[in-house]
């Protein structure tokens, strides 16, 4: 089967960074589905692993943690899906990724694709939807109905995770949504998604919140550049607030949060699949809930660019764009 893979970690400019290869077709066993991949999207995790993780014994490593495809075969323990089902998922970090014609994925982290979306539109959502949902409702425990004027600040609202976070908040909660963005096009984007207020994260945030006359946010979700905004977050967050992040700052000193009794939460959407937690099926369930919201017209795709086909050349372009830090929404690749 065709795949895009690599062996040696390094910069995207290296000729070995991503390569078109032929790999053996895997076999579905146990809870696994064998999925013929139709479309994939690219996330920051792809670039981080490509830059930092080499393989052993000249094995090929396939990246990709967002996919839509058709179930081609099932393992003997599969109970929720059948051959021919069209599914979407983000996969597992400790298995081969979706940048291949065929991929094995555990049914407990898979959902049925929204009926109203094309594969390219749906492929933009799984990883970011899982990340946003788990952060909001599992980690921060944001209530569906909060006291009046309760607000949440989403730092980096125009990115992949931020784009779906704002939509979930708008559809499932009554929180006042404050988002950050720095360019005209991204400010408009987050407003369209449902942000009530937009701050410019290239300037101090606390002063902007005060200027707008807003209450101190009880919740803060930082999707990017947390280290640059940490002192601001400490100042602006409400006492007994809840702070969550998903990026990887080199250092994170949370001691300044002590006087406000702020709780700190890290979200890593691969935790459930990596440790085979008893509740890993929750990812399948939440993907089904998101699909229902999509089909009801309440959540829209966050795809901003589509490249075709799925090959090394186009994946390199996508990685370069992600690494620029200026991506709006998601980059999707379609077809082999």
Describe this protein's structure.
This protein has 336 residues and is of the alpha/beta class. It is built from ten helices and 16 strands. Helix 4 (160-172) links the parallel strand 9 and strand 10. The protein is globular.
Essential attributes:
alpha/beta; seven-stranded mixed sheet; six-stranded parallel sheet; 10 helices; 29% helix
Helix content percent band = 25-40%
Helix-strand pattern: EEEHEEEEEHHEHEHEHEHEEHHEHE
How would you classify the helix and strand content by structural class?
A: alpha/beta
Quick check: average pLDDT? Answer: 96
What's the short version?
This protein is α/β, with parallel strands linked by helices and 336 residues long. It has helices at residues 44-52, 119-122, 126-139, 160-172, 184-193, 205-211, 226-236, 271-274, 282-295, 312-323, and strands spanning 2-6, 19-22, 32-42, 61-62, 67-74, 86-89, 102-106, 110-112, 151-155, 176-180, 197-199, 219-222, 242-245, 263-266, 303-307, 330-334.
């Amino acid at each position: 089967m065709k795949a895009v893979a690599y062996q040696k970690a390094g910069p995207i400019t290296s000729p070995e960074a991503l390569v078109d290869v032929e790999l053996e077709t895997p076999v579905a066993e146990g809870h696994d589905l064998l999925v013929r991949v139709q479309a994939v999207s690219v996330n920051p995790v792809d670039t981080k692993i490509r830059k930092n993780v080499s393989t052993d014994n000249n094995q090929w490593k396939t990246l990709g943690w967002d996919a839509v495809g058709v179930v081609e075969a099932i393992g003997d323990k599969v109970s929720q899906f059948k051959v021919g089902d069209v599914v979407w998922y983000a996969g597992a970090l400790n298995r081969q990724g979706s940048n291949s014609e065929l991929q094995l994925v555990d049914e407990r982290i898979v959902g049925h694709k929204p009926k109203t979306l094309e594969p390219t539109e749906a492929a933009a959502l799984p990883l970011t939807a899982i990340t946003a949902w788990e952060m909001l409702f599992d980690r921060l425990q944001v209530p569906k109905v909060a006291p009046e004027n309760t607000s949440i600040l989403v730092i980096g609202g125009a990115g992949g995770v931020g784009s779906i976070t704002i939509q979930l908040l708008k559809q499932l909660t009554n929180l006042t949504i404050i988002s950050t963005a720095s360019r005209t096009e991204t400010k408009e984007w987050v407003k369209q998604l449902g942000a009530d207020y937009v701050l410019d994260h290239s300037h101090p945030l606390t002063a902007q919140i005060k200027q707008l006359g807003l209450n101190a946010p009880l919740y803060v979700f930082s999707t990017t550049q947390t280290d640059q905004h940490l002192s601001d977050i400490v100042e602006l967050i409400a006492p007994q607030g809840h702070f969550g992040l998903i990026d990887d700052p080199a250092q994170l000193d949370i001691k300044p949060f002590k006087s406000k009794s702020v709780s700190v939460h890290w979200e890593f959407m691969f935790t459930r699949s990596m440790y085979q937690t008893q509740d890993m099926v929750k990812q399948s369930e939440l993907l089904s809930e998101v699909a229902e919201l999509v089909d009801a017209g309440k959540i829209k795709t966050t795809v901003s660019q589509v490249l075709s086909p799925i090959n090394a050349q186009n994946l390199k372009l996508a990685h370069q764009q992600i690494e620029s830090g200026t991506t709006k929404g998601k980059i999707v690749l379609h077809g082999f």
